Amino acid sequence: xxxxxxxxxxxxxxxxxxxxxxxxxxxxxxxxxxxxxxxxxxxxxxxxxxxxxxxxxxxxxxxxxxxxxxxxxxxxxxxxxxxxxxxxxxxxxxxxxxxxxxxxxxxxxxxxxxxxxxxxxxxxxxxxxxxxxxxxxxxxxxxxxxxxxxxxxxxxxxxxxxxxxxxxxxxxxxxxxxxxxxxxxxxxxxxxxxxxxxxxxxxxxxxxxxxxxxxxxxxxxxxxxxxxxxxxxxxxxxxxxxxxxxxxxxxxxxxxxxxxxxxxxxxxxxxxxxxxxxxxxxxxxxxxxxxxxxxxxxxxxxxxxxxxxxxxxxxxxxxxxxxxxxxxxxxxxxxxxxxxxxxxxxxxxxxxxxxxxxxxxxxxxxxxxxxxxxxxxxxxxxxxxxxxxxxxxxx
Length: 395
Ligand code: ATP
Ligand code: MG
What we know:
Elements: E1 5-12, H1 22-37, E2 43-48, E3 51-57, H2 62-70, E4 75-85, H3 88-106, E5 110-117, H4 126-140, E6 145-146, E7 153-159, E8 163-167, E9 171-172, E10 184-188, H5 194-204, E11 208-215, H6 222-239, E12 242-248, H7 250-259, H8 265-283, E13 288-290, H9 303-310, E14 317-318, H10 326-336, H11 339-342, H12 364-371, H13 376-385, E15 388-392
Parallel strand pairs: 5-6, 5-7, 10-11, 10-13, 11-12, 13-14
Antiparallel strand pairs: 1-3, 1-4, 2-3, 4-8, 4-9, 7-8, 12-15
Helix pairs in contact: 3-4, 5-6, 5-10, 7-8, 8-9, 8-13
The structure holds adenosine-5'-triphosphate and magnesium ion.
Adenosine-5'-triphosphate binds at residues 188-190, 192-195, 212-214, 273, 291-293, 297-298, 300-301, 348-350.
C-alpha cells in the first residue's frame, strides 16, 4: 500500500491523570505541538480517541518532526505508526508491510506481537489478535521467527473503532505538563550552568517564563551578555519566546563596596538581586522567582546564606536544583543543550567584586545593619528605571 503521510501517536503521561482537567491539559498540549510544528507545511495535530495524532506529509523529514514533538513539555512518548482499517485482514497486511520495512532497515530477525483492543466490540479478543497477526507476519515474512522473551522487535497492534494502528518504538519525551498550565515565574538567569537548567525544570512543570539578568558593565563585557542571550534562546526552544529584563548592578555594587564590610559583599549583592527581581516580577504578573541555587555549592549557598538571601523577599522562591549534585545538573545541561554555551569563559557580575573571604554563615541582624547604611529603595528604583528589555526568541 502506498502511504502518503507519516503518522505519529503522541501520548501525554501525567496529563492523563488529571481527571476533570484532562480535556484542558490535552487541548493545551495540542496547541503547543501545533505551535512547534508550525514551521513545517502539511502537518495536522488532532485529538482522537484519547490520543493525540500528528499527521505529516510523507515528503517531510520524520526525524526532524519527532525531534520537535519530543521537546514539548507534557509529551510522555511518541510512536511513529501506520494506520489501517480495523479488520483482521487489513491489520495482517499492514503488519507484514511494517515488518518488511523493519527487516530491510534494521535487519530484524525476531518479533513478538503485543495486541490490545480499545474497541471492545471488535469480534476478536486481544490474545487471539496477537496470535493471528503473528501467524500472518510469519507467513508474509519468511525470514522472521517469533521470540517471546527477547524479540528484536515488539510489534504493537492497537485496534480502535475507526482505524487500527501498528507501531514499534516508543520514543520518550520529557514528560511534565504543557506550558501555560502553571502560572508564570521570573527566573534569575546568569551565564552559568545552573540557572538555565533550573529555568527549564520549572517550564517543564507548565510554568511560563520571564527572565532577569544582571551585569556590571563595563566590568562585564558585551560578549558576556550575548552569551546569556544565547543561553536564553536555547531555553526558549522549549518554553517559547520570552522577555528578559537586563539590569546594570554596578551602581549598587559600588555602594556596597564603599559602605559595607568586604566579606558581606556577595550576600548583600544577592539580596539586592532578589529584591529587584521580585519588584520586576510583580510588575509583570509573575507569581514566583526561580533561581539555580544549590545547597552548599558556594559560600553564598550555605544553609545560613540561603536563609538570609530568602528573607530579602516575600515572594516564593523556587530552587528546583536545591538538592541535586553538580554532576547531575551538568548531565541535565548536556541533555537540554545549554552546557556548551554555559562553560564559555565569560565574567559574571557576581565575580566582579568577589570578597577574599566571603561570610559562609551570615547573620541577618548584621546584614540588615550593613544595609541600613545604604539607600536601598533609591538604589533599587534607579536600577529598575534603567532596565533594558530584550525579546528572546527560540534559537
Ligand atoms: P549559575 O550557574 O546559575 O550561575 P552559580 O552556581 O554560579 O549559578 P551563583 O553565581 O551564586 O551560583 O548564583 C546563584 C543563582 O543566582 C543563579 O543560579 C541565578 O539564578 C542567580 N544569579 C547569579 N548571577 C546572576 C546574574 N548575573 N543575573 C541573574 N541571576 C543571577
Ligand atoms: Mg553564577
